[in-house]
Amino acid sequence: MRLDVESVSALTFGDGSPVRAASAIAAFGGGWLIVQDDATHAAWWRSGSVTAVRVVPPVGGLEVFSSAAGTKHLKPDFEAACVVPVDGADGVLLLGSGSSPARTRASVVTADVPVPGVAGADLGPVYRDVAAALGLRDDQLNLEGACPVGDRLRWFQRANLAAGVPTACVEIGVAALLAAVTRAGTAARVEIGDVRRYDLGTVDGVALAVTDAVALPGGRVLVSAAAEDTPNAVDDGPLVGSALALLDDDGVLATVPLPVPASGPYKVEGLAVRETTADGLRLLAVTDADDPDAASELLALRLAW
Predict the structure, then answer these.
(1) What are phi and psi of 123, to 5 degrees?
(2) pLDDT of 233 higher than 70
(3) What share of the chain has pLDDT > 70, as a percent?
(4) What is the Cα gyration radius of the chain?
(5) What is the DSSP code (8-state) at residue 294?
(6) Domain span at 269
(7) Sheet holding 89-96: strands in order across?
(8) What is the CATH number of the domain that holds 53?
């Protein structure tokens, strides 16, 4: 595979404030929904403008969260987002990382007119079942990418080899999960299916770990991955590289590093397919600067097979 960065732009809302800690991106309402992992609103990017869309109610009366303010432990930490069918139309499913009890929320956002609609629920029992299926303690869970493959959702665990945690994914029925999120069903009816494990390699001795995933034709999955030197599922650490990896049911087919600018590696946290081309894909990716005052970046990427 060959990967080129076609353009890079800073993401800001209409009032000039930064889009913070972008963690996922999904097609939404004629544009793209960009998830912020430390806020109660996502960013709706369309026609050259960015507006806020609520994805979860205030937490403890707060809308944004940070280590500096002592509120990081309260953030919803939505790390995965993907397009799902909701009442015959497309919606976006947002999933928390599960890395703490406060991060087991899920929401579904629909592009209703004039105001997008949102439904959500705490899925603590589902996260506990996922941890058990992966053979992990609850505090080792860090689910950072998800994509539907047929009627199943592949939900990816971010590796941390320092803590003995490999990259893996579980399969969950999309319909049962959506029913639990919208409260049309219960978390108890969400069954955990197959588990797959992957070795994405390392950069300077640090494991590449999945940060997002998109489904491709034929059952393959393209993932973004970051080599971040962190001791656990909660704390940030130095980033030494990023890559994309192409997976099938049996393992890793190919990997390609992201070009590194003078400012240092891009920490790509969200990935979406913009267009399929004759020789590959055109992609959108969003970055997390691990700084609440720094605007996340939107990368236009071209991937050639």
Answers:
(1) -115, 40
(2) no
(3) 98
(4) 18
(5) S
(6) 2-304
(7) 78-86, 89-96, 105-110, 117-122
(8) 2.120.10
Q: Which residue in this structure is represented by tokens 């919803």?
A: 76
| H runs (alpha helix) in the chain | 124-134, 174-182
- Is the C-alpha dihedral spanning 206, 197, 243, 286 positive or negative? negative
Structural domain total, the chain: 1
Residues in the chain: 305
Gap between the Cα atoms of 143 and 80, Å rounded? 8
Instruction: Kindly list the distances between the CA atom of residue 9 and the CA atoms of 49, 53, 261, 287, 294, in Å, as whole numbers in the listed order.
Output: 13, 21, 13, 11, 12
Question: Which pLDDT belongs to residue 234?
Answer: 62
Kindly report which listed range (164-168, 193-197, 223-227) carries the lowest average pLDDT score.
164-168
b/e burial code for range 179-209 (CB count within 10 A of at least 16 → b): bbbbeebebeebebeeebebebeebeebbbb
Nearest to 14 by CA among 65, 62, 63, 48: 48
Q: Which helix (H) or strand (E) holds 138?
A: none
Q: Are residues 94 and 146 in contact, defined by beta-carbon separation less than 8 angstroms?
A: no
From CA 276, how far away is CA 292, in angstroms rounded? Answer: 33
